[in-house]
TrEMBL record:
SUPFAM superfamilies: (Trans)glycosidases, Beta-D-glucan exohydrolase, C-terminal domain. The lineage of its organism: Eukaryota, Viridiplantae, Streptophyta, Embryophyta, Tracheophyta. This is Beta-D-xylosidase 4. It holds the Pfam family Glyco_hydro_3. Keywords: Glycosidase, Hydrolase, Signal. GO terms for cellular component: plant-type cell wall. InterPro entries: BXL (IPR044993), GH (IPR017853), Glyco_hydro_3_C (IPR002772), Glyco_hydro_3_C_sf (IPR036881), Glyco_hydro_3_N (IPR001764), Glyco_hydro_3_N_sf (IPR036962), Ig-like_fold (IPR013783). Residues 106-324 form the Glycoside hydrolase family 3 N-terminal domain. PANTHER family: BETA-D-XYLOSIDASE 5-RELATED, SUGAR HYDROLASE-RELATED. The keyword Cell inner membrane does not apply. GO terms for biological process: arabinan catabolic process; xylan catabolic process. Transmembrane segments: none annotated.
Amino acid sequence: MRAHNLPLFIIVILLYTNSAQSDATPPFSCDPSTPSTNSLPFCNASLAVAARAKDLVSRLTLDEKVQQLVNNAPSVPRLNVSAYEWWSEALHCVSRHGKGISFGGAIKSATMFPQIILSAASFDSSLCEMQAIGKESRAFFNGGQGKGMTFWAPNINILRDPRWGRGQETAGEDPLVAGKYAVAYVRGLQGDRFEGGEIMREGRLMASACCKHYTAHDLDNWNGVDRYSFDAKVTKQDMTDTFQPPFKACVEQGKASGIMCAYNRVNGIPSCADRNLLTATARQQWGFEGYIASDCDAVAIIHDPQGYAKEPEDAVAAVLKAAVERKKVSESDIDRALLNLFSIRMRLGHFNGNPRMLQYGAINATSVCSNDHQDLALEAARSSIVLLKNEAALLPFSKTSTKSLALIGPNANSSAIFTGNYEGYPCKTVSILQALDNLYNIPTKFVQGCEFANCTSVSADAAVAIAKVADHFMGLDQSLEREKLDRVELGLPRPQEDLITAVAEAAVKPVVLVLLCGGPVDVSFAKKNPKIGSILWAGYPGEAGGVAVAQTLFGDNNPGGKLPVTWYPKEFSKVAMTDMRMRPDPSQGYPGRTYRFYTGPTVYEFGYGLSYTNYTYKVISVSRGSLFLNSSSAVKKSGLISVSELGSKGCESIKFSAQVRVTNHGSMAGKHPVLLFVRSNNLGSGGTRRQLVEFKTVALSQGETKDIGFDISPCESFSHADEDGITLFTVPFFISFCRFRYNSQSNKYDTKAGSGKK
């Protein structure tokens, strides 16, 4: 990648340079051993962060200021300011990618949690693993193996198209889920509490999170169109109720300290040069007070290849207005950017003396790959695995009557695939084959079947020969889906399908198919084949994936995950990936996207997932609110009301709560996500076909019952945007609560009778 010696918006153009390995002491400014600078106001920890940052910026020369606006900011020795590296990665672990973290010291590994698309399948909004990642990242820094504590994650883009190579990094296709994930990640990594208490904007950060890629970014390289030149044509309607909500939640609820603007243009304007997005929306409307970074080289491409700016200096000016010598901007604009940057570094504690003596100073190497974190990685994988098919209760296998197994597939005896992308070096891994042998000691035969996921070399004869007791472990890998590589079709590679079918036909008993992949896959051939009795989706399950899959196969884990994304049929590949429209257009044969709008057939629906046990739900109480209208003009002739005109008082008055009783009627304990949807009858105004309102996960022992509560705000949960981007919902509105029995083994709801209405 080319290096461009230009400052970027707020922070960085990535200058790919090598620097010396840090010593065992973490870098910091305001060293007490330097009294000449220690008395300066910016070193006074008792002052407000804003005042300290302002004092520091005022002491910098113009040359020093400009040098601070790149990712590898140099030191300022005369002021006792240390160097700083802004680029580190921590998507689902402390990553080896980026420039800020080194695995070359005493700490040589980190806990690898499941890839995010799989974690999202747990529908657990706490995501405690993010706290663990923040703690481990601080351990690297305190151990002298970090040059910065700003991590460019999470990826909170909507998985609009199932072919996107980076879909594995996201929480799926639903804005509510993506938003809750954003909040959980940011609060966990930054060290904030999940429940209760106000998050102070000047509070000390354990690490800094950066929500990306802002905004409408979900194409890398498809059919000759790449992310650098792509112009996403997005309607105001889709921008308001699909693409922006996760970022809004990231800022308003998560209090993220960073945002990364995307490569692509949105309606003709590069995201990193769009004042409406970066200033009017993020800062002024949402109250964002952190730093904004461009993606790697995003500013350079504004000039080339996008051609949006005529000169290189114009590219910088469009983003940061930093070309002072050519009078593109005033020095005060640079100062404003630097205030954001130094405020984050001060909140990280890097200007308060030795970090080892401060709030997070006791976190050390013993916190990395700890037993607690490895147990958490295992539980995260166990809670997320999705059971897609289980005819005649083929799974779980009996520990006593199962005499032998046969594993077929390139992923059965390899753990390399488990970590997905933006990975680090795992604490330890075992393959599924090794885990089965270690845990259950059942005689097992293994045939690779084909060398790689694309199955260019197939050993069908050997696989068929052991098919009498065969399971399959097939799927995709990073050679087929990753950053800079979108998929071209939605099925498994054809040689894989042929191998699976051949083995299933040769087998005496139905076989099990385990899928290891990030994006959705059309496995209709396996779903319809009676010789394939069970299908498990295990995503990229992290370092503990082998154990989690083995325990699921033998019933030591009851799968409770549900799909966070629609699995489309192969025919969906005919839809242009560049078409950003969410709503369907029947006149053009356009089916729409995601479960909220899509009108076509599916392989598996959003929220689908089976279990080894059976749960039932019963609505036991519903509170009642009263509709308050602050203006008769709020209600339009169509029966739709503007949420903004209704106002906060009106929205507050119609909130209500519901209590749902969940019972485990089966013979096995399990964790079960309860998903609450609302259906709309007003599709003509652009409403959603179905919309997730809230979700909670409950753990139930055999025969146990628990009551869970949902607090519902119609202004948020029952609303959609009109063509002008105005948020509306229907008035009057009715919500029917029915008594029903949910069969988690068949994923069906049997409605009996209505029990209430509001």
